[in-house]
């Protein structure tokens, strides 16, 4: 990791500093499923129409994949601080580690700066280098904007469910999740393939829509999914999240039912959580979700099939097949 980033912040005599930096990287960058990073390699292979890349092509695709994983780590380190979270990937959040604390803020900045160093070291001579820099900067800006929308909607001031609606939910999801999780890996693969991203506006829109659908699935599984399958116990109700379920409930509930939401949503006691879940069942939101899922899938299929490039169609279908009707 440090070799990739040409890391030389510490002189050779400060071995302890280097060890701490390696520990921070291992703790925060590793441990996930690496789906975003691996998608760069898979998409690049598909766009080139090959099963095996040449050595240099593999290295460059892997490098961009790791840049996305670095970006993910940077987002998560700071997001956990803002949300005052306890655990991440089965271990204490980085800022919860006793020796770390709020030094984690600076560690997040270091993680982000590694991306620029990696890109400079390995892509500076490439014709698409500036496009890569612009891409990562733009996606980071959109994700930070989504985080801000989430914070001022969910966390800022007194709890107010009147701020929650489908448009707000959609904006948060698109900016906070969809761009960096779905669009960024494919955009990196397109640039590696020598393509101009300006020619793929429709592809961006499809991937952002796919990311929105993915997050709606997450919101649904948080309440109705099997904790054994999804690997966690959902807490969107307790955390007062602007989830797809609560905005659907607000849209379809009568005044009495809205009163139940206002009284119980955002409370952590089991009785209040159960009342909200019972209301979701009363409003038949499970059926509403399955209708949304079916309609989203059909629209995405139609949009994908309208793409002139068969290779691009194949890339988009591979993303959709991974998430359609997922249970975790």
Automatic annotation (TrEMBL):
GO terms for biological process: farnesyl diphosphate biosynthetic process. It holds the Pfam family polyprenyl_synt. The keyword DNA repair does not apply. The keyword Signal does not apply. Keywords: Isoprene biosynthesis, Magnesium, Metal-binding, Transferase. GO terms for cellular component: cytoplasm. One of its GO terms (molecular function) is dimethylallyltranstransferase activity. Its cofactor is Mg(2+). Transmembrane segments: none annotated. Belongs to the FPP/GGPP synthase family. This is Farnesyl pyrophosphate synthase. It comes from Aegilops tauschii subsp. strangulata (Goatgrass). The lineage of its organism: Eukaryota, Viridiplantae, Streptophyta, Embryophyta, Tracheophyta.
